[in-house]
């Protein structure tokens, strides 16, 4: 009577044994017996265990005999675990299982770091762990923002990259206005070059497009540009304007019978304009005027008035001083007014009077012989003392025809002992006595005598 309850309790224990346990396997290993098991005798194996896995057993004798000889168990691991060992085992006659198995946690390979970025993972590099990628300031992710460790031990998606897509920042100086320097149409302008910044790169090359600071800028607006590139060739640019203002005075009109020569653009601030009078005229008033900052000319205008020659002076030096640096002298000497050479020369000079004026030449006539000699400049008679001193100063004889050409410095430049044509006389004057300015004026008025 006592054996029946014991057997009944043992059978209940076998029925309560489940396939999933908490231990990590066991050490009883035996070779599988392919012979038909003997079910008449009960040979029990220990209940198999598989941590983080599941065991499914099938016994030929039914569910109540899951750990008896002949029972076959299939081993499988939970998600995220890999089976190491036998996937199927059998309970043998020696009361041992035909193999063992364990479930190991599955892992993915370590993700490489990305330049200019980083990542953080929820569970490291095990299955189902999600890694989120971020980029440093100034960069943007291209590709997947996250990757997940998959059941097969591989990462989802592809490794992203951090691209520099943000352009640098640059700020130009403010636009400015500068007044041209006195006497010039330009202004020297300086400024501090801008500094560029970038969230990704520290070293940037700023490129100037336009004139360098500190150089001369012409009148009007001058556009200055700066541009900068970062290492990813992102571009930024800025610009500003340098405006040069030329302060101008009203235009000056040249005087009648005269002209103006100015040092600059005629009317700009600092320009100096000088007055010049034509031959036979002299300046009355200031010699030059300056354009001032307030856009007004200094002083008043000058005039060119007919040259007044004092013929009743008491000495030749007093007479000559009036011509010094103003006029050239052509001194014509003849024994008397009836001299044929004098008459021929006089006709040619009268016809060439306009050309003499253009070349700043005044004619002095000395006629007769001492002590009855006379002298005149046009209709103005010279004193006998002045006549004699002129003959002595320039060694002019009254016994025969001659002409002496005197320059503006009072020097004897050429002598003629026979009448010459105006073309010959003018050719000599133009070639040897005129300065550059006089040549330009003569060229400008060369047809004046024909009008």
TrEMBL record:
Leader peptide range in chain numbering: 1-19
Example GO BP: cell-cell adhesion
First-listed, main subcellular location of the protein, grouped into a coarse class: other
Disulfide bridge partners, by residue number: 135-162, 277-304
Domain Sushi: 55-105, 106-164, 247-306
Domain (HYR) ranges: 163-246
Subcellular location: Cell surface; Cytoplasm; Secreted; Synapse
Gene Ontology molecular-function annotations: signaling receptor binding
The protein, known as: Sushi repeat-containing protein SRPX2
